[in-house]
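As noted in the main text, all predictions were made from sequence alone. Below is one such record, for histidine kinase.
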Amino acid sequence: MHGPTPPWARENRHGRFSGPPVPGTFRGRRDPGVGAAIGAALFQTLGAKGQADDGHLLVTMRPALFLLLLVGPVALLFRRRYPVAVFAIAAAASMGFAAMAEPHWFWTVAPIIALFHLGATGRRTAALVSGGVAYGTYLLIFWVFAGPIGLDPRVQPGVRQLLLLAVAFLVAVFLGGIAKIKGEQMAQMVKVRAERERAEQEQQRRQASEERLRIARELHDVIGHHLSLINVQAGVGLHLMDSRPEQAREALSAIKTASSEALREVRSVLGALRTEDEAAPRQPMLGLSRLGDLTADAGLPVDTKITGDERTLPAEVDRAAYRIVQEALTNVRRHAGAGATASIAVDYLPTALHLAVRNTFVEVAAPVGAGGPAGTGIAGMRARAQSLGGSLEAGPVEGGFLVSVLLPTGDDE
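Prediction:
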């Protein structure tokens, strides 16, 4: 009940949680494919325009040259399916433009993005080989054979520019590998978290099922044994009532003893259903009509707010709502610390009842789980709500803890 508040724990206007983000949804995915292609296209076309304005372009800027600059960015849209081919196309297009302009970094944007993605897919060897081949080809064309093939000397790169290009290629491959490792780590963390949540939910379901089976088994043993004994003694008493009244009296005495023992054992079994701080019911009906008495005896300041049209609820819903609020307040007394406060919101919806019990933290002497196994209070409240077709969500919120319950009440009449 303490610790940093997760982003998903912010409640909506009904006091309910949205739940953690699901992997694979639109919010949980990051696909920079289109954005990277648009960014590369802008960098390369604007860079070419600026170079032409500064007089560093050896030919007149024509639409065909803009199209050449867009070949690499457009190819980036297909880099997930053909990463090596996309890098080769982007590198070839950039070198084609480089043959008509003085050396500049802008025409390397698309090839470097393609090389980064190649490394990010885990193909480090392919990325290194592809980058090496492209770099070697560029070196041969623009340095070794620039004169024989008739390239303008102004397009030849200097030593500094060649070193920077080599470093850029190596960094792209390295960062791509880092991105792959980070992605795998994040995927593993999401998988482990999902498995842990499934395991916790399964454990809670198993605990609830085992508790129900245990109570049912004990009730069966207690009631079956004593009722069968009472039935036999009643038969004996009826048979001997006229002929042997003294023995009939003994049978009635045995019936009284057996029934008293049965009641005692049933109370003992059902006592396990109550939390240790919960008093045994003194009145036959428990419901939200007694909410004022419950909050008055809560042992801490409680603010109650009721909205919607109040109406008579089904008995099982009314009792479950009372018990859930009672257990939530018990948890506040146990875990929130001295001086904590609580608020209860009861909202009568047309076809449901919504409860929200929220508390503040002050100080906690012994954190939950520090001295023994975790309690089953939330699991019990959730099982009680689900048995009526409802739902319960509980989790930390800013400065406290929130229990949000939705119980169906039937159609609005």
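Residues 1-32, 280-284, 364-374 have pLDDT under 50 and may be disordered. Residues 349 and 355 are 10 Å apart (CA to CA). These features were considered when defining construct boundaries for the mutagenesis experiments described in Section 2.9.
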